Amino acid sequence: MKKLTFRLTVLVLLALYLPGLAPVLRAAPRVVHVFVALADNEHQGIIPVPPALGNGHDPQRNLYWGAAFGVKTFFRGSKEWRLIESRRPAKEAILERCIFKHREQDVFLVADAYEGSQIRSAVSDFLSAAAGLDEEKLNVRDGSAETPIALGGGADLTAYVGHDAFMDFQIPLIVGTKGEKRRSAVILACASKQYFAPYLRETGAEPLLWTTGLMAPEAYTLKAALDGWMAGESGEEIRQRAAEAYNRYQKCGARAADRLFATGW
User: Which domain holds residue 150?
Assistant: First the structure.
């Protein structure tokens, strides 16, 4: 114990006098990777919404992205999150990528807006990430600081937001990697527990939050879940947060909202 304490003391002192060593001692930030399938009246089996909200080629006005309760708009307007960067990544199916940083905790949120017609790619990429596959390295520049983070299979939490694609089609199962890292997933889509369960089980990820019926997959529910996740709450506590937020915005009644969300198998 004395030797360990001495070594830690030496490392701290070296970090003070050798700034380049400081990143070695700093814990890596946590990363949330969100896969958003833009609402699309033409290419998805959704109940049609107004044309501007249901144009899967236009993220800036889309129901699940640029509208008032879309992921980009809602988190950009939040007091707790700060938009660092917005751009189009190399993957053709993704129309926009937004990178947010929490103002108080060392947590990054990376949200990808998939073109509505590319919903198959969105759910496939989400499940691959939940399976611990397709890790993507990214250097995030915030002012003068640059932070390396891992997306996809390297993220700490993955989430899917959008239409329940498996009401329309099926894809091959994606088998997860085996490792010590526990993987969790949030699926905000209609009846996601029923339709996503066979796929998610194969990935090896745990369902932190999903749904039992029809719902509006808007960003206030995602934010509520992330608040609980960052606070280290249990799945049940996170489920209750999500239900309360959903009822607050949808006015559907506390009992109905409570029945809508589930956690675990």
Answer: 29-217
